[in-house]
Amino acid sequence: MTVERADPPARLRRWLTAVGVTGPSMAPTLRHGDAVLVRRGGRSVRPGDVVVAVFRTRPELLVVKRAVRRQDGGWWVRGDNALVTDDSRAYGVADVLGRVVCRYWPRPGRLPRGPL
């Protein structure tokens, strides 16, 4: 799931920010058109969390992925949809900007931990 952006840090300066999801990489957990709330700060990111991140090799792109493991001072992130490889397998380590805490549109609810 990616969200085009001009300046990611400016986009997520508030502690709670709404982000729109595009693309199929996080299906079935998140679908194209879902809207999620992203929290900066709070508890630290853990493996299995859904996060908003920026790949070091693609700094112009804001992505929604699942944190897999810490690596090289950042995170290895993957989408839940194994058929889509626009994640760390293609772009390497990402820097996490915030943790997705819930989906609020169109199907409100908390997100499951770990891939389905």
UniProtKB/TrEMBL annotation:
Task: Name the Gene Ontology molecular function terms of this record.
Answer: serine-type endopeptidase activity
One biological process term from GO is: signal peptide processing
Q: Which Gene3D superfamilies match?
A: Umud Fragment, subunit A
- First and last residue of the signal peptide: none
Keyword Membrane part of the UniProt annotation: yes
Cellular location of this protein?
Endomembrane system
List the InterPro entries: LexA/Signal_pep-like_sf, Mito_IMP1_subunit, Peptidase_S24_S26A/B/C, Peptidase_S26
The terms describing its cellular component in GO are: endomembrane system
Organism field: Micromonospora palomenae
- Residue span(s) of domain Peptidase S24/S26A/S26B/S26C: 17-100
Designated name of the protein: Nickel-type superoxide dismutase maturation protease
UniProt keyword list? Hydrolase, Membrane, Protease
